[in-house]
Specification:
This protein is of the alpha/beta class. Helices cover about 45% and strands about 15% of the residues. Helix 2 (about 30-35) packs across helix 16 and helix 15 (about 320-330) crosses helix 16. Its cofactor is Mg(2+).
């Protein structure tokens, strides 16, 4: 598996100083978590699930969740479970996995059921997404993932989704996050990443954010996200990769506010019409939310439409400037301050060291762009292909 695999080699050479490197289930957990990128959710009941996975892999989707929870009606869960298992077995018969594949179950029993009937498909299964994860329900989920791993003879990862009211409500949040943190620490080797379920969080207050706003404009929810990152996203060895919440919109609409996408980068790259196309498809809000995810310590994102994948991945590639700043910062561990080679900032070696390490980890899976190449160039290449 490799990001931007849908681009021709000549395009990769034009865009990248260092092309993205392959990754897979056997990689270190931290690298695999960063490699998730845009994780596309698809109902496990789809009749053409195998063909859909193969098609999306060819379009650059590198992680997908076969959903048995919110995307599936109550009376179709059993059908979806059988279909997911059959799909995994069919993909395994074709050879190596085309992407990182997960199943989102409803209950811990669902994990046990899948483990009891899954055959060769375990070869292409990366793990399970655990919805509405709490300190009370979480232990059963994590024990089930451990049990499935032992039964099937493969390390299977867990991705808990933090979205319950015990985290959303202010009076219970600290105790709940502290308990979740302790529980996840007990199962650290098994936890790939922590996902944020902002839609359920908004539902607790009867909120549905407008497409002219990002989740960071919804104050009651951004407070929850900040606390999740504070408890679970620390870089001192106690935290995990936190992935961004879903962007719900992908169709044209009448706008109330001005577009959130600055015109200047597109004018500089002779892509003004391309900017208009992005705005018309509501991708300007998505691009801004991705940038704010990164600014708030979040990597990767849940997506529900394939058109969103290119935006997430274009903004995940490490720029030439970021890469050289990171290399300079890690060049010595003696501390001190040095002007960036770009002449526009100061690099402080000790406070910026963790940022630099994370940047080089991201560079290994998303690549380093050539000097002067921006997300506009990447997004244009991905969308126009």
């Amino acid at each position: 598996m490799r990001h931007f695999c849908q681009l021709e080699q000549s395009v990769l050479n034009r865009l990248f100083l260092r092309v993205p490197q392959p990754f897979g289930d056997a990689d270190h957990r931290d690298r695999l978590a960063v490699a998730l990128g845009a994780t596309l959710y698809v109902p496990a009941t789809r009749s053409d699930l195998t063909a859909t996975i193969m098609r999306r892999a060819g379009e650059g989707v590198m992680s997908m969740v076969l959903d048995l929870e919110d995307a599936v009606a109550d009376d179709e869960v059993e059908k979806g479970l059988r279909n997911a298992v059959a799909t995994l077995d069919e993909l395994a018969a074709r050879g190596a996995a085309p992407m990182l594949l997960f199943i989102r179950v409803r209950t811990a029993d669902g994990i046990d059921r899948i483990a009891s009937v899954l055959g060769a498909g375990v070869q292409v299964l990366t793990g399970f997404v655990l919805p509405k994860f709490t300190a009370d329900s979480g232990r059963g989920f994590l024990d089930a993932v451990s049990g499935a791993s032992e039964r099937l003879g493969k390390t299977l990862y867990a991705m808990p989704v933090i979205e319950s009211t015990s985290v959303v409500h202010r009076e219970t949040r600290d105790d709940e996050l502290r308990a979740i943190s302790q529980l996840l620490a007990e199962h650290r080797p098994r936890v790939l990443a922590v996902r944020i379920g902002a839609t359920d969080m908004c539902g607790a207050f009867g909120i549905r954010r407008d497409r002219d706003l990002t989740i960071y404009d919804v104050r009651v929810i951004v407070d929850v996200i900040a606390d999740i990152v504070n408890y679970l996203g620390r870089t001192d060895g106690t935290g995990f990769v936190i992935t961004g919440p879903v962007w719900e919109y992908f169709a044209d609409h009448e706008r109330m506010f001005r577009p959130m996408l600055r015109a200047t980068p597109f004018a500089e790259h002779d892509a003004v019409l391309f900017r208009q196309q992005l705005v018309s498809r509501d991708l300007d809000g998505l691009l801004r939310e991705i940038a704010l995810d990164r600014a708030n310590g979040i990597q990767g994102k849940t997506v529900i439409h394939p058109s969103h994948v290119a935006a997430v991945h274009a903004l995940s590639a490490v720029t030439h400037e970021e890469f050289h700043d990171a290399v300079d910062i890690l060049d010595t561990d003696t501390g001190g301050v040095q002007a960036s080679g770009y002449g526009n900032k100061m690099n402080e070696r000790r406070p910026h060291r963790t940022w630099a390490q994370q940047t080089l980890l991201r560079a290994s899976v998303f690549g380093v762009t050539n000097k002067g190449v921006t997300f506009v160039d990447l997004l244009t290449a991905l969308v126009d292909r």
